[in-house]
Amino acid sequence: MTAAPGTKTTRRGRPGYDLESVLRVAVELFNERGYDGTSMEDLARKLGITKSAIYHHVPSKRELLRLAVDRALDGLFAVVEQAEQADGRAIHRLELLVRGSVSVLHDRLPFVTLLLRVRGNTDVERAALTRRREFDRIVAELVAEAESDGDIRPDIDPATTARLLFGMVNSLIEWYRPRNGADDIVEAVARVAFDGIRVRPS
Amino acid sequence: MTAAPGTKTTRRGRPGYDLESVLRVAVELFNERGYDGTSMEDLARKLGITKSAIYHHVPSKRELLRLAVDRALDGLFAVVEQAEQADGRAIHRLELLVRGSVSVLHDRLPFVTLLLRVRGNTDVERAALTRRREFDRIVAELVAEAESDGDIRPDIDPATTARLLFGMVNSLIEWYRPRNGADDIVEAVARVAFDGIRVRPS
């Protein structure tokens, strides 16, 4: 919507800002300064609009956080659902889950970064942590199932294997910067995780 | 040293607090609240001593940070030195570096946690980041050398392999809690990183 010139809604209806762009800038600030360290004032300044223009799109900072972590979690749980509906052995479903998660990280990196730094100080953060734990539980169960199928190495405790696997996946938030499509990074993580970095005599 | 009862040095010389224990509690607070979010007042309160009692051990908060990140970095660079002096192929030296680093994480977890969260706002933090980048460069070079020796998979860009490798190692700060010796976790990381989680037909 574009406001007619000279009306009081000029700034409010400033073209180029919709909820999506307000959310993206909010997530950028939350990642830079922390959620607690970012005020709606900071966000308004960064966007170059008034606070009331932000409230036109979203009722609170809390709601911005909720939308942001849900963007990450909904992506990850869509992947869980795909993996759970897939046929085949647990290791195959686990590989789908790893590949899909890397793809979500590629597509929604700032949102997943925020999710993984959430510490649980507010109700929104605690709800996000609960869903994260649910995700981790699903991974751990798949690893345990694949191990009892004889497909995953039995010499390491499955809980540790699951942690190392997603430790590697989640480390992407520290160093990965998406440039092209997700294919290269999905392939790299899946190969290293499942088959290791060493060349084996074939 | 124990102060004689009734003298003014009672709190200052409070038994049980030496520089090492002040440092450990400081690192715990820095990890909980951030370096910027922790004051010497907070530290004094946590220790149950006065600020001047802390200054008896260490001249500044900055110096506590320097001691803490150096504890982590000195451990990691001692491992680099051992790896560089070892004989054998690059992949062997790389494995020594990975195993040694996991062992340092086990032994000095709160210090490495602090190091990996440093963002570079102060001169001490910037110096730590410079040493971290030097460490990462050494890892990347070893990976590249091992790849040109034909020992590391050539289908992934060596820089990505190096990042994923230490992404997995560094993820330990997020979930690993040392209980027993370092052997189990060193073995688990080395096996998963070099040979992957999948069982291969032998």
UniProtKB/TrEMBL annotation, chains A, B:
Listed Gene3D superfamilies: Homeodomain-like, Tetracycline Repressor, domain 2
Keyword DNA-binding belongs to the record: yes
Key word Transcription regulation present: yes
Domain HTH tetR-type: 16-76
Protein name as catalogued: AcrR family transcriptional regulator
SUPFAM superfamilies (UniProt xref): Homeodomain-like, Tetracyclin repressor-like, C-terminal domain
Organism: Saccharomonospora amisosensis
Entry keywords, A to Z: DNA-binding, Transcription, Transcription regulation
GO molecular function: DNA-binding transcription factor activity; transcription cis-regulatory region binding
DNA-binding region per Swiss-Prot/TrEMBL record: 39-58
InterPro entries: Homeodomain-like_sf, HTH-type_TetR-like_transc_reg, HTH_TetR, KstR2_TetR_C, Tet_transcr_reg_TetR-rel_C_sf
